[in-house]
Write a structure and sequence with these properties.
This protein is mainly alpha-helical. The chain is 58% helix and 0% strand. It has one domain (24-107). The protein has four helices and no strands. Helix 2 (26-45) runs antiparallel to helix 3 (54-92). The longest helix is centred in the middle third of the chain and has 39 residues, at 54-92. The radius of gyration is 25 Å and the shape is elongated.
């Protein structure tokens, strides 16, 4: 269960969030594999051996890795901008986002007795 009760603390990163091992390399890796797959598909479409023209596979893979890194960067910029807008809105309207008390499951769930 999250220890955060303040809505403003949810949108601030104080260096406590560490990305997983695959998080920074997932998009470039997936797009690079898709680029190599596209080169294989092009060769298959032209009825050539699928691994002929290996330079094409390397080039498509490199373009895919670059595109994946670009998409990752744009996604991070979009999410940072969205968080900044939400943080600013919460700062301007603190009455709409009160700090709530934490409740345990025992306080939320009603007592239940099975009928047999």
């Amino acid at each position: 269960m999250s220890a955060v009760n303040d809505p403003l603390e949810l949108l601030t990163n104080k260096g406590t969030h560490e990305p997983s091992f695959l998080s920074p390399i997932w998009n470039p890796l997936a797009c690079g594999v898709a680029g190599v797959g596209a080169a294989i598909f092009v060769n298959w479409g032209f009825r050539r051996p699928v691994f002929s023209g290996i330079q094409k596979h390397i080039a498509f893979g490199a373009v895919g890795v670059g595109a994946g890194a670009y998409f990752d960067q744009k996604r991070n910029e979009y999410l940072a901008k969205r968080d900044a807008v939400l943080r600013h809105y919460i700062e301007l309207h603190p009455d709409d986002f009160p700090v709530k008390e934490r409740k345990t499951y025992g306080q939320v769930l009603e007592s239940w007795v099975p009928v047999r």
